[in-house]
User: What shape does this take?
Amino acid sequence: MAPCWSPSRSTLGSAPGGNRSSSATAVSATSPAPLRADASEVQGLGDLRPEQWKSGLAAWLGWLFDGLDMHLYTLVAAPFVMQLLQAGSPADPLVKRYSSWIQAAFLIGWALGGGLFGRLGDILGRSRALSLTIGTYALFTGLSSFAQTWWHLLVFRFLAALGVGGEWAVGSSLLAETWPRRWGPWIAAVLQLGVNIGTLLACVTVYLMADQNPRWVFLVGVAPALLVFWIRRAVPEPAEWREAKSRAGQARPPVSALFTGEVRAVTIKTILVCSLTLTAWWAFLFWNQQHLRNLPELAGWPTARVEQLVSRSFFIVIVASCFGNFLAGLLAHWLGYRRAIALTCLGLFGSYCAAYAVPREHASLTLWLAVIGIFSGVFALFTMYLPPLFPTLLRTTGAGFCYNIGRIVAALGTVFFGFFARVGDFRLALLYAGFLIAPAALLACFLPELKVNRGGR
Assistant: This one.
């Protein structure tokens, strides 16, 4: 299937041929001129200019702290909500209900933040929007420490998620416009590695603070705020965005352009694939922690020992994900993004089935958790695959909307699959969630293909 916009086209975002609606024409009018002339001269890291290094470091650190702030809650959800509700056990039905509602609010905030800050990234610029997103999630993650009721925590997590969701779209677009596009699969892997390292830092934080009040782990999430000051001083706006804005003047494409002309098909297909995979993934990230805590063999274990097991298991998933990012990048380099997404989705579906189709003790389950982590590399591919599908002045809006709107579905899925979970056994909820990945693998075969150009940008 031919791509709607090839990275090699001088009018990135212009659909080839055919009549266009007025909205599509507005989009085309804001498409950039040929990409940087020096892009093909970049042969290695030593050829990158200082501003490219700064953009890369800003995006990577933003993603690292994304991983830290987003996963602090998933690791302490049950004990913290239990404390807020003054419940007697993490297995209390109210703990399960309200902790899933809080996670759902986070995912909805993530989706809305992707749209909101994605739009600001197209209007204000990538660097400015990146600063706003990081400041937002740092502030409200820290405030989560002071929650006194479950709904306080829900509000703080929702507001923090606005920044987390926006950072994804802005950071990925920033690199798509400043680094050689032929490096896309490897840039995606390295960016996702930043998220993984941030998640590992969350695991280490919770592990070291296992004997402390779970609320205090959120104070660690304030650290990213310091990054904002450096970004505003050192990271310039991409030349591609500045040139497109200058040519467009006031004629910026509206959000509705995502659903007009040839853009519409790309938008719908991407939303479907992202929604299905993200719902399954976030069901895993949330309910697997509860599944581990409630394994029969752990009955009678001290609370601190159980929490350390949960952190250690999650650590294994994320370490495996680090390798999975580069496996997915290698597949994209060999086969193209579309086939790589389909294959990694199939692997992820198979690993869910192997992990949860039958009851397993924690030692056996941990092995399959590592396999799940490896195939979660599919999410790294979306990073550099989505932004080039859209015109420059619709890029963070389109990438942020299509990827993050799936989190609203994931939020509903987190609550929905929780209804299948009997208290003390969440295995079936995780198994059923995994079946969403199979249709995602099929739909991925119909996504536009972006050729991985090995000879130029």
Observations:
- The chain has 16 helices and no strands.
- The two ends are 21 Å apart (CA to CA).
- Confidence is low (pLDDT under 50) at residues 1-40.
- The first helix runs from residue 22 to 29.
